[in-house]
Task: structure prediction
Amino acid sequence: MKDLLLVLTQKEIKVRYKNSWLGYAWSVANPLAFALIYFVAFGIFMRVEVPNYPLFLIAGLFPWHWLANSIGAAPNIFLANATLIKKVRFPRNVLVASTVLNDGLHFLLSIPVILGFLIAFRFAPSWSWLIGIPLLALAQFMMAYGLALAIASVNLFFRDLDRLTAIAITFLFFLTPIAYSSSMIPTPYQAMIYLNPIAPLMVSWQQLFLSGSLSWPLLLLSYGYALACLGLGSLVYLKLSSRFAEVV
Result:
């Protein structure tokens, strides 16, 4: 299974960059473009009071795009491999794992860009990155994989799920403190923001990159949500996978 996962991940990378001259630049262009847009809209026009706002945006948008890309691609993962699913017997969840892993690798490769912006703003990386990045990356992989696996499985039976997924991603983005700080949320609603399973993970990334700190309560909450998503995705997949070849 490990060999299959490696082969599929390599295939995903080759397909993404086939006939692409800019290659690695495309991995960072999208989050940087969004960071610029939100900085102009919220930082300049609306004057959001967040210290070092460009860095704040970059620290949240890069990990967010890993999650959003993986979940956004989920509805079509099994559909795009329909021929393979019909003709070959193999653990189909590897297709989802390779997609999420591929997006995760692109995020990890973008960390030097985040580091470059930190240095430009006279910030220094912390030794805590050596522990924090693997811990948060693992939690995010489990969360993204679990959600993507559930969505990919259900979409074979309810083909409108791809449109609903796109809408849900938009809702989640604005309900997650990425373009705004969690401290800006009115006090009565402060606790409610962490009912959003994405929020503690994104806040943890921002804290790690900007201050080198890692909140253990937020980390534990992130892992709780990640394990719940992983369990949900696995349960849905096991329930439906026997019928994949019939409906794909």
Notes: The chain has one domain: 2-247.
